[in-house]
C-alpha cells in the first residue's frame, strides 16, 4: 500500500532530534531536503498537503533562462538562470530537454522585431551557446513554417531555444523528494507543523498527521520555512520577522486538444504585454499564462481568466473553429510568490522577477526561502546548505553530489536488460515514446524493479487507463515508493493523467478502480469515491 512508507516515516519523526526540519514540499523544500541529506545532514521534511501540491504543480513546465528579464536589464539574473538551465540539461538529460521557441512580434510592439532578435542572440551568448542558435524570421517565413499563426499584423519574429520538462513539474519536484528519501531524509506528506517553540538554540516542534489527526513531536536545531506563498503566514506563527515578504501574481493555463502539429513552443506577447505561450504537451496543448495581482495565495480560475486566454489564442492563431470554454480539458492555476522587501510595492508588476531570496535568522536558527522558480532550484539547494552550515550545523560531506540522473553506465545496463527483455516491443501503439525511455526517465535505478516485475508477470506491462501512459507495474511501484495518500496525488501530481484526460473519460475508465486497489488496498473504494467527487 502507498501509505506504508509514510506510516514508517511518521513513526521515525516522533520524539526524535534532527539537524533540520523543512516545512513545505514544493520545489524549494524538495531541493533543500535532497541537498542536505546528500551532504550527510540529518533532515526531516513535511508538507501539510501533498508534495508539490501548490505552486510547483501549476507552472508552465518550462526550465528557461529568463529571456524576458533582458528587457528590465537584469543581466546578472539572466546569466545565473542560463547557467542553472544548462546544469539542469546536463544533469537530467532524459527530463530537461531543449525545445525551440517560435516568437511572433506584432507591428506597433514596443521594440522593433529585429531588435528583439538581437536580444535573443545576446541571450544565446549568455547561455554559453549550449543550445541551437537563434534565427530571425520575416512574417512570410513565420507563415510558411507555422501556417496556423495569424501573421496579418506580424512585423517579424524569431526562433530560439530554451528547455521544458518532458513529464510535468510536480513529477520533477517529487524526484527530489525521492532522492532525499534515498539519501536518508525522513519525509511525510499531509503533515502540518502546528507549533514550534524556540528553546536552547533549537526548536521544539509539534506535528499533526492531517489524515489521522495524531500528534507527533520532534526537536530540530534549524527550521527551514519553504512554504512558497505561505512563507509569510508561517513566519507570523513562528514569531519570525523578515526583511523580505511576498507579493502574489496569479497565473493560469488551459489545456486543450493539440492546437497545431508544431513541436515548438509558440510564443506571443499577449494583450497585457506579457509573454503568452502555446506549449506542446504530447497530444495536448497548454495555453497561457495570465498575470493578475492577488492578495491571497488561495486562487481559482475565473470566467475572466478563461476569456483572456481564449481571446488571445483565438486572435493569434488561425483556427477553423475558435477554441471554446467547453473545449478545455483541464486547468492549471497558482500564484507566483514574488520576493520583495518590506517597503517595496508593485509599481512595475509585470517586471517583478522570480529571483529567490534566502533569509537567515541567526538568533532563532531559522531560514526562510522567498520566491524562486524551477529553473533555479539547484542553486537554492546549494545556498540552503551554506545557510544551514552558517547556523552551526555540521555538514559531514560538503563535496557530495546530491542531484542528477544515475551515471551513464547504470543507464546502459538498464537499456541492455530492457532490450534483452524486448521491452520496447511491448509498448502500447498509442504511446508517445518507447517504454525503456519512459521507465528510465521516471524512475531511474528503480526502473530495474519494473523489469523484474514484467519478467514475473508479462501482463503487468499493460496500460490501466486509456489515453494515460501508465502501466500496471508502474502503479505497483508507485504504491511502494511514492507516498500516494489520496488518488489525486497520483492522478494529478505523480502523473499528469488528470491534466490530459477529460474528467468524463477518467470517471468511465475501467482501470481506475484497479489502480485504486493497487494503491490503497482495503481502502480503495473509499479513496476512489473521494476522488470522483473532486471531478464533479
From TrEMBL:
<dbReference type="InterPro" id="IPR038299">
    <property type="entry name" value="DAO_C_sf"/>
</dbReference>
<feature type="domain" description="Alpha-glycerophosphate oxidase C-terminal">
    <location>
        <begin position="430"/>
        <end position="500"/>
    </location>
</feature>
<dbReference type="InterPro" id="IPR006076">
    <property type="entry name" value="FAD-dep_OxRdtase"/>
</dbReference>
<protein>
    <submittedName>
        <fullName>Glycerol-3-phosphate dehydrogenase/oxidase</fullName>
        <ecNumber>1.-.-.-</ecNumber>
    </submittedName>
</protein>
<feature type="domain" description="FAD dependent oxidoreductase">
    <location>
        <begin position="19"/>
        <end position="340"/>
    </location>
</feature>
<dbReference type="InterPro" id="IPR031656">
    <property type="entry name" value="DAO_C"/>
</dbReference>
<dbReference type="Pfam" id="PF01266">
    <property type="entry name" value="DAO"/>
</dbReference>
<dbReference type="Pfam" id="PF16901">
    <property type="entry name" value="DAO_C"/>
</dbReference>
<comment type="similarity">
    <text>Belongs to the FAD-dependent glycerol-3-phosphate dehydrogenase family.</text>
</comment>
<dbReference type="InterPro" id="IPR000447">
    <property type="entry name" value="G3P_DH_FAD-dep"/>
</dbReference>
<keyword id="KW-0560">Oxidoreductase</keyword>
<keyword id="KW-0812">Transmembrane</keyword>
<keyword id="KW-0274">FAD</keyword>
<dbReference type="GO" id="GO:0016491">
    <property type="term" value="F:oxidoreductase activity"/>
</dbReference>
<keyword id="KW-0472">Membrane</keyword>
<keyword id="KW-0285">Flavoprotein</keyword>
<dbReference type="InterPro" id="IPR036188">
    <property type="entry name" value="FAD/NAD-bd_sf"/>
</dbReference>
<keyword id="KW-1133">Transmembrane helix</keyword>
<feature type="transmembrane region" description="Helical">
    <location>
        <begin position="109"/>
        <end position="126"/>
    </location>
</feature>
<keyword id="KW-0319">Glycerol metabolism</keyword>
